Every structure is written in structure tokens, then in C-alpha cells.
Amino acid sequence: MYCIAETNMSKSLLLLYTTGTYYEVGYSIGSTFSERINRYWNESESLIKCDLPFYETLRGQEYFNTALKVCEMNFPQYIQEIRGLADGAKMPFDHVFKLNLAKEVRHLSNNLPIAYKEKSGCSDVYLNTPTVKILGHNEDCDFEIEKYAYMVSVRIVDDQSGTELENFTSFCYPGELPGTTVAFNRHGMVFTANALYAEDTIETAPPRQFVNRSLMKARSIDEVIELIKNPGFGVAIGFSLNVVDIKNPTCMWSVEVGPHANVSLVHVLTIAEEKDPSKSGHYYHVNNYRHLEIEATPDYESSIARTKRIEELPPPSNKHEVKCLLGDQDNHEYPIYRTKCPPDILATALTAIVDVKKNRIDFYLDNPSRDVLPLFYFNVLNRS
């Protein structure tokens, strides 16, 4: 079943609760959101002008076959999930699998305009003191994704024993596996992600979408790191992961990931609880590497501008100030809260505010700095 949560007639987000095997859950998601996924496939300018022409080339066909082969070896359960999603949406499997390779295709298509390379952005703000523990996230993406995105709350069970294998909730781009945006699971692990742009793409390694999907079962930061490393396979492109453990709230983590065959490159920064009242306990991450020593593409204008603005502002000291920072639009060309106003080509689809001490995630579809109520919220350890 699904429900519509809304603050007014113009702001709504579909949420699906579903239980079953990997294939059955995929089928449920695909059938529920079939219209959205098909419309996105038919209307997305970046798909039409970037992805599909790439697959018409010999290199594109070879990459598709290579990616499918490595995913079938490394993540056969998620291939089944995609097969279910495709069947439910009444789309060819190849189409849905291509949706889950879009991030890599942006890297591999060297002749693309920059507007198509930056498919997703995102900004994250941490605040970790004894009295305030907040992770705030802006989910930035292209407009077609914003129109057709949805949320899923999933329980995966073994097809033989019925044993629960995974239990998580995630914001999803149309047709893509959960896990690359904002997500949390029944173990109290909360994840948000930022796109990063390393120079290299490892075409023989599994796509980022599959590695992010695998994190949904993690029980601890140690498991998160091991799953990201993905020994024996690595990951095709880089990303940054922001992690909170509701059950162990003293620390938060910023994990930068670099592409590599066999084992992903990883740098883990621990944002420890700051007990010194003269220090802020504040950290942030956007779409550039800050710690992992890796050859990266030049920073996009938006990342440069958002970094500059965050560093200009005083460090936030409470939830309200985190919301104001994430809603800042002082830079009219490249604001922190994005609205697809040229020259910026992305929009903030959703803001998530994780309040660790309250065991709660608030979701906003409006600018969170405007004293608006969240569209809805979840209790992380007791989904509702």
C-alpha cells in the first residue's frame, strides 16, 4: 500500500511500505511507481541527451555488458530487485539497469556539457555537542528527478525461511535502487550521501548505486566501512557518505570514497562529540574531496560557492541554525538551497534533519529556513 503525506496541495511525496523477497519488493516498487518511472525515462533531458546516445556507441554497449556481469557476480540479489522493478513498471530490464548506471555514464561521457555531468549535488551539515546532535542534508538533483521521486519503507525476507534480511527506509530517484540519497535502517544507522567527482572511473568495478544499496543492512560503522570497501570488487566511482548511529550517538562519521578495483579507497573522519563549549562541534561536506588524496575533476562552481558561503556563516549551534544554513540563498547564482535558477542547473528536492537525541528525522519539501513545518517525520528506531 502507499500513502500521500502533504502540507498543502502543491507539496506531496508518495511513500510505499512493502515486504517480500528482493524480486517481490522490486516488483511492488515498480508497479506502484510505474507511471513516475516511465515518465522520467521518457522526459529526462539528461537521459535523452546523455545516457541513451552513450549506449548507442560501442563503448557504451561494452560498458553495459561489463557492469551487468560484475553486478551479477557481486550483487545478484540486487539484480533480482531490479528485475522485479522492471517487471512491475512494465519496462525492459535493460532500461531500468541503465537508470542505475547513470552516475557512471556521466563520468564516462567526456564530451558532455557540464550541465549533464553534475546529475546530483547535496550539502551536509553536522553539529555534535553534548546537548545538540544534528545531521542536516539537502538532496540536490535535476528537475525531472525532483518531480518523480518517492520514498520506500522496505522489509526484505528470505524466500525460503521468511527470515528478515533487511529493513530500511529510503528516498529514491525514479527507477533507481534505494540507498544513494537519505536512508535509515532498523539498526539505527542513518545515511546521507554526496556525489564526488574523482578523475577515474573503474569500468570493471560495480556501480556506486549497488554499493550504496548494500549499506542498507549495516549494523555499525565498522560494517559500513567494510561494505564500502567491497573487497574483491571495489567501486566504479567515488562518493561521500555521512553516517549517524542513533544507538551510539557520541560520534558521527564523514566517509570519503574513491574508485578502485578490488577494494574501494576510503577515508573516515570521526566527528566526535565536542565537550569544549568554546568550540562549535560543527563540520560540513558538499561535492568535493576534503581529505582523501585522490586525483579529482575541478570543483563545480556550485561546490565552490556553497563551500565559501558555509565558511562565511557563523557555525550553527542548534537545529534552527542548521536549517537556516541549509536554506541559505545569499548567493543568487549558486545558493546552498538550490532552485534550478540559471546558471545553477539543479534543485534541492528535499531537506532531511536528523535529530539524534530525539531519534527523529524531519523531511522538508520547502526551504527549511522559512519556519515551515516538516512534511512528515520518522522515528528511526520505531518507524512511524
From TrEMBL:
Pfam families: AAT. Residues 129-369 form the Peptidase C45 hydrolase domain. PANTHER family: BETA-ALANYL-DOPAMINE_CARCININE HYDROLASE (PTHR34180:SF1), PEPTIDASE C45 (PTHR34180). This is Peptidase C45 hydrolase domain-containing protein. It comes from Biomphalaria glabrata. The gene is 106074211.
